Amino acid sequence: MNEERIRLTRLRCGTVSPPAGFCPEAGRPALRRKLAVSVFLAELPGRRPLLIDAGLGRAVSPEGRYDRAAARAWLPEHLCAFWRPETPPGRAPAEQLRARGLSPAELEGVLLTTLEPDHVTGLPELAGAGRIWLPEQERFWTCRTVYALRQPRRAWEAVKPEVFYYRGTRDGPVLRSLDLLGDGRVICVSTPGYTEGLCAVELRSPSGRFALIQSDLALTPAELAAGRVPLTGFNREFQRRSLRWLRERSRDGACAGVFFGHDPAPGPDVLEF
């Protein structure tokens, strides 16, 4: 790898199978829709690798298939029935890191973009990471009102993530973001709507190019193009606003690519820019 470039690798760690109405798709007769669950390994110039999201861990699916009893240890019954998480053998994030010769302790840290279960149930197996970051806006709301029904604290609270605050900037749909490491390489962009604190990540290379990582603004490239948002979001107006920002940013000539955390379609999983 060129030492002045960023390498971004999508690690597919399993699937969830929410009801098909989670996001409408014309002519789709299935009762459930199987979606990929991914985490992202960013290799940054002059830094240790950074993991974006924690995905589905081994404990939530010990045998690699949906296991209601195992999932119940992490999720309440209504979320087990909704998500039906599955983590195939060798695909838990900690397992994939180990296969690459990496331990959690060798990471720069783990950046959580949301506290939805499919983003955090792998977190206990990554607890040795040097730092675990979380938007304060996401932590604040997950402990309150209906968010508490969607984002169970047992999946992440014991790890005690380090919260960060978005700041007023020129980035993103609501002009709030954070330069996570202070070197202009990892920009956490506030993209509210699906949840209040939802974070999209923009990785900026010394080459002047950038890549975007997001999971819950649009589930697939087709839905980004069509302007369709997941119907389980909390604020449809802000979801569409955030989606418009993503679409406009993705059309910038310097954009090296957009990674979709839930896109089940096969495709390139490594991007170097």
In oligomeric terms, what are we looking at? single chain
If you compute it from the alpha carbons, what radius of gyration comes out, rounded to the nearest whole angstrom? 17 Å
Apparent shape = globular
Strand order of the largest sheet: 6-5-4-3-2-1-13
What's the structural domain tally? Answer: 1
In the CATH hierarchy, what is the architecture at level 2?
4-Layer Sandwich
Give the helices and strands as they follow along the chain. Answer: EEEHHHEHEHHEEEEEEHHEE
CATH class assignment:
Alpha Beta
CATH superfamily: Ribonuclease Z/Hydroxyacylglutathione hydrolase-like
Number of contiguous helices: 8
Strand proportion, as a percent range, falls in: 15-25%
Q: Main β-sheet, in a few words?
A: 7 strands, mixed
Indicate the low-confidence ranges by residue numbers.
none
Q: Helical percent range?
A: 10-25%
Note the gap between the termini.
10 Å
Properties at a glance:
single chain, 273 residues, Metallo-beta-lactamase, Chain A, six-stranded mixed beta sheet
Write the layout of secondary structure elements.
Elements lengths: L6 E10 L18 E9 L6 E3 L15 H5 L4 H7 L9 H7 L9 E3 L5 H4 L11 E4 H7 L4 H4 L11 E3 L2 E2 L7 E4 L6 E5 L8 E6 L5 E5 L6 H6 L9 H15 L4 E6 L9 E3 L1
Describe this structure in words.
This protein is an alpha/beta fold. Helices cover 20% and strands 23% of the residues. The protein has a single domain (7-261), classed as 4-Layer Sandwich (Metallo-beta-lactamase, Chain A). The chain has eight helices and 13 strands. The strands form two sheets. Strands 6-5-4-3-2-1-13 form a seven-stranded mixed sheet. A six-stranded mixed sheet has the order 7-8-9-10-11-12, covered by helices on one side. The N and C termini lie close together (10 Å).
